[in-house]
Amino acid sequence: MLTADRIIALSLMALSAYFMWHAAELPIGWNGMTGGPGGGAFPFWLSAIMFLTAAAIIVRSYRGKIEYDSNFFDTDTIRSVMLVVVVLTITVALIPIAGAYIALPLFLFWYLKVFGKHGWFLTACLCVATPVFLFFFFEVTLKILLPKGFTEPYFFPLYARFF
Amino acid sequence: MEMLGYLADGFATSLSPINLFIVLIGVTAGLFIGAMPGLGSVNGVAIVLPLTFIVPPSSAIILLAAIYYGAMYGGAISSILLGIPGASTAVATTFDGRPMAQQGKAGLALIAAACASFVGGTISVVLFTFLATPLADVALAFGPAEEFALVLLAFTTFVGLGGDDILKTIMMICLGLALSTVGLDLISGQPRLIFFDQPGFFSGISFLVLAIGVYGIGEILYTIETQKTAPQVTPAKVTFSELWMGIKLLNKMWKTMTLGSTMGFFVGMLPAAGATPAALMSYGIAKLTSKTPERFGKGAIEGVVAPETANNAASTGSLLPMLTLGIPGSPTTALLLGGMVMWGLVPGPMLFIEQPDFVWGLISSLYTANLAAVLVNLALIPVFVWALRMPFTVLCSVVFVLCLVGGYAPSQKMHDVWLIVGFGVAGYLLRKADYPMAPLVLALVLGPLMEKSFRQTLIAEQGNILAFVERPLSGTFIAISVVFFLLPLLKHLKSLLGRTPNRVR
Question: What is the DSSP letter of A149?
Answer without folding.
Answer: G
